Amino acid sequence: MLTAVGEVLTHKKYGEHFHSLTIVAPQIGEQVAPGQFVNVASDTDRSFILRRPFSVYRVHKRGGWAATIEIVFDIRGPGTKHLSQARAHDTVGLLGPCGQGFKLPAQRSHCLLIGGGIGAAPLFFLADELRNEGHRVDVIMGARSIHRLLNAIDVRRLASVSRITTEDGSMGQEGVVTDVIDDMVERCSTDIVYACGPHPMLAAVAQMCNERTLPLQVAVEELMACGYGVCMTCVVPVRTGSTRSGSDERVYARVCTEGPVFDGATVCWFENEDRVTPEQAAPSTGGAPARTNTDAAQQAELAPPGN
After folding, report:
1. 171 burial class (0-12, 13-18, 19+ CB within 10 angstroms)?
2. How many angstroms separate the CA atoms of 263 and 261, rounded?
3. Residue 184, pLDDT above cutoff 80
4. What is the pTM of this model?
5. Which end of the chain is more exposed for a tag (fewer CB within 10 A), N or C?
6. pLDDT tens digits, residue range 218-277?
7. Side-chain half-sphere CA neighbours of 302 within 13 A
8. Which domains are present in the chain?
9. DSSP helix/strand/coil, 298
10. Which is nearest to 263 in space by CA: 211, 166, 198, 193?
């Protein structure tokens, strides 16, 4: 893990909501792997005590002296609002690469990438790496509406076969990503699944993959404070031993160090439930499991990493 001061090369927008910063960070750019994240200091103002964690959306390696990383985010709070005002030649403090990334298949495989909303950001970096290694890449991308889809045009460029779902039917098929998984797995002869997105989506995908004995790697979203394993605010329960044995032995793993990428079969998505109920699978405002006694304002505080 390195600390660096990166220079903003470009600031652009994807659609109405998503901001993109391309940052010159040679050492981090040369080392980072798909699924890892960087911790960004949003300002020197002491009111911004904590860094903000962002998955790496893209890496451009033009030699060790000029490697850049790209992060994508929407405005969730004062930290991301400040970063959205960054322009070329501004500087940001970086800590990274942080966490554990995706493991690429050892042999040529058919890989299905499933993403939801802004949480799909690390899949673009992953798709580039998989294609460079000779693997087939197919993609399912979902969101609440066309306005919350991340770079749908690029999805079609990256994938051999792509499917888009929106809950309001404003683009692609009306529904959620799990509505089209069966068809895509059969059509594309999928060998392994990679998924990023809100917790309920990942839980539903994990259940379907477990039923089909498909290997699954997930990038889990949790609120992080320190970003390097000290504060213990981002722990998730995971099963130990055989990933498909149904063992009740559980430990708590830190998303920022042992994750954010986990074997999807080991994560205890809902501690008191073996299966995902329709209520649990319903998307919530902040990407956390739906809570029947929590109002919309409280749910909005449960935003994914990078606020």
Report:
1. middle
2. 7
3. yes
4. 0.85
5. N
6. 999 888 888 888 999 999 999 886 545 555 688 999 999 999 999 999 999 875 444 444
7. 18
8. 2-98 (2.40.30.10), 110-294 (3.40.50.80)
9. helix
10. 193
